[in-house]
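Lecture notes, continued. The same structure-token format from the folding unit now serves as the input rather than the output. Read the line below as a description of shape only.
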């Protein structure tokens, strides 16, 4: 085998694609041939550069994770908004149903009716905000454990 033939095998050698016999024969040739050895070093340098480029790829994954995270947060935000609206609607309707008799009663003063309506609305808003706060801290505590 001439040096030219060995050069064709260099990339295969560096990529660990040669079988055991080819590998040992190539290494044997390297011992007695400084020219091929030098060329192999050059190939190694090229390979390490291309490997570095390949290693830079995980950054794409970081960006993907980042956007995933942003998307999750948006999703979570939208989820909360819908949940809050639903909770407020249910509480207001449920509350109104409870005080319906009082509101429909003509002998009850108007101020008292307004007060009752505001009470139901206020309770609905408060309950949702307390619930959101609880879940927010609960979620944050869990993330804290995972991150550490
Ligand atoms: Zn050689």
């Amino acid at each position: 085998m001439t040096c030219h033939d060995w050069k064709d095998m260099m990339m295969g050698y560096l990529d660990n694609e040669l079988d055991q016999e080819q590998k040992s024969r190539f290494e044997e040739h390297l011992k007695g041939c400084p020219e091929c050895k030098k060329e192999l070093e050059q190939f190694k340098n090229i390979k390490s550069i291309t490997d570095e480029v390949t290693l830079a790829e995980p950054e794409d994954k970081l960006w993907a994770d980042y956007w995933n995270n942003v998307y999750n947060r948006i999703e979570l935000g939208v989820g909360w908004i819908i949940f809050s609206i639903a909770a407020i609607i249910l509480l207001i309707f449920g509350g109104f149903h409870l005080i319906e008799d009082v509101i429909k009663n003509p002998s009850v003063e108007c101020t008292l009716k307004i007060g009752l309506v505001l009470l139901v609305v206020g309770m609905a808003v408060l309950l949702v905000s307390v619930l959101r706060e609880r879940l927010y801290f609960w979620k944050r505590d869990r993330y804290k454990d995972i991150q550490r």
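Point for the exam: The chain has a mean pLDDT of 81.
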